[in-house]
Amino acid sequence: MNMNLAQKTQRRLGAFLILSPLLFNFAVGAETVVFRADFEAPTPAAPPAGWSLWGAPKYKDPANFTRDTQQAHGGAASFRIHHPARTEGYVVSAPEAAIHPQPRKMYTASFWARAERAGEAVFGWTAYRQVKPFVDAPSPGFSPLAVERQWKHFRFVLHEGWDFFAEDCRHLLLTFRATGKPDEEQTLWIDDVEVTEQPSPREGRLVNPATLTYQPLEHRLQPGEQLLVTIDADKRLRQTRREVGGVSFHRVAGWARLPFDKQGQYVLPAELEEAVRQMRLPMTRFYAVGDEPFGLETAIDKAAGLLDRIGVDQATTPLEFEIQGATSKLPPEVWARGVRHSLDRGYRFRHWEVTNEPYVGHAGRAFPTADSYLEHFLAVSRAIRSVHAEAQIGMAIAHRSPAWGNYLLKRAAGQYDFVVGHYYSFPNVQRSSFEDVVLTGNYQILDEIRQTDALLRLYNPGRDVYQYDTEWGLHSSGPQGERADYVRRNANIWGMMHRAVRLIHYLREDLLRGASSWEMFTYQRSPGFGFLAQDAPQRRSMNYWLYYYFNRHAGRWVLPLDGTAPYHEGSAGGRTYRGPLTPVVATLSHDEQQLYLILANGSWDKTVPVRVTLRGFLPRSGTGVVLSHSDPDGDPFLERREDLVRELSVAIQGQELTTVLPPHAVAFVTIQR
User: Fold this and answer.
1) 17, 180, 324, 462: most buried, per Cβ within 10 A?
2) Could you read off the pLDDT of 595-628 as tens digits, one per residue?
3) How does pLDDT run across 165-194, given as a tens digit for each residue?
4) How far apart are the first and last CA of the chain?
5) What is the pTM of this model?
6) Which sequence spans correspond to the domains of the chain?
7) Which fold has domain 5-199?
8) Are strands 557-558 and 584-588 parallel, antiparallel or unpaired?
9) Helix (H, G, I), strand (E, B) or coil at 262
10) Considering only CA atoms, which of 483, 476, 495 is closest in space to residue 544?
11) Rounded to the nearest 10 degrees, how much is the dihedral formed by the CA atoms of 265, 271, 275, 280?
12) DSSP H helical ranges for 524-629
């Protein structure tokens, strides 16, 4: 994951950030001006009329967003947008002046811009389904602007039905940032801003995934007052996809200076190595393997050796070669060289992930459009297959983006074996209820995964194409716009319970072939995602203990279950989602001697009694642990396991098991035959 401008904007707006600026002109149909701002009219206050300050409240300083009569491209004034260092304020066209796009139209945005010094500003579109109240929609895109001291003209084109869908993006706001670097002080001036509408020359439209028929998420339990579950151990739904219990490494020589340093020395302390081993990971992932100072082949050797050392199968672990920020790309022949090296060494790697998040619109990116990434992906795919016929090749997508998701799936069909969605959930944990973060946000993402599957089937008939995710987690900015890495709720009881609910569904519903959560190592000062802290090797995060127990309670067979559960209903992305307050998964061990239950209580304050009736399995004994923590803003890194993990009392009588599920808790139960 790259902590950059586009993702910060994404966290703020809740929309995936993508861009397809088609920088060419079409002579089609009459143009209609749908937005214009020349800043000629005096305004009594900042910002100028028709514009609004956006971002965290502490960055909304009107003095930084003013009409400037000393700098103008045409006429008497321009709009000055000042960005003090270490801030993240920006400006949008006012919601009351929003553009309301129409089907099959082309929208051309043009403006003049200059900066205090040469650099990269940002232009893009903020999109909403509705504005009273605000309901986010997928953004048509954000792009770096190469600005200079002299005035420079910019032009961007959007095609409805290809870059966005009018039925989703009902309100479009122009968005400007003076810089894509939060630490940089910069001033941007814009002038003569105009957006026109005319018929699009592109034929047809992409299929809107919202119109597809697909199997909705199966909840297994019906609404009811109590959690009453019946499990039939004589039946099998399927073998489990244990690979959903993975955790991603960052790089071979990662930002936390683990597990190797930049000189290639193995520096993972024995205590942390054993902690990783004890998670019993079924898969992991490395990226930027070809961007290490000691070279691609050596990095592959080190990754292979580490996996053998910690007991993770190379065959389930994707490798990605290119720089993590997608600011440069490797030639196809370099990809082929790395894959050939792996084969020659007898390694079992077979999943090759082509580029990490190429859609993120940060400064200096190597892929300004979806087509530029498509061209690269197809060339790399051919090169890999030329040396590895059994390769599984993964394509990165932004699943909410028509251009970076739907379009890529259609155009590259037949050339990818799996797709990588990075299914982060982006709520605002300060403004959302615990239940909506833990349950509703997951039910939204899980439905979108089903929707992506429907597109995969549509574009790849007769092929076994699947999803294999390599990053995911809870991803919220802080109350003052702090980066997600530094937000405790992303990884304390909020984040742990969010991941617990997701893992239950991943294991039970066969949504993905594998999923690797973000990320293995961090520092204590940035606990938002990391499982282990480089500077506190004796501590374990709450998410560490979640995965420790999850991978010990993911049996060989998923068992069918039915019954009732209390339900929760919430809204996300303009839709209502309803599902169990207490999701459950049941699996059976390989030797059929243990039956495992994982149960989550997504309520902050409700205790839920549990009654489980077993069929085809005579229980002899039952044991359990429960993970829960009472501080909503507690430190994710624990001094003691006992601060989170406690024994769960389980009673068995005949074919029935009873227990009590505390609030905001996940329980792991082992029943012995």
Assistant:
1) 17
2) 999 999 999 999 999 999 999 999 999 999 999 9
3) 999 999 999 999 999 888 899 999 999 999
4) 43
5) 0.91
6) 5-199
7) Jelly Rolls (2.60.120)
8) antiparallel
9) coil
10) 495
11) 70
12) 542-550
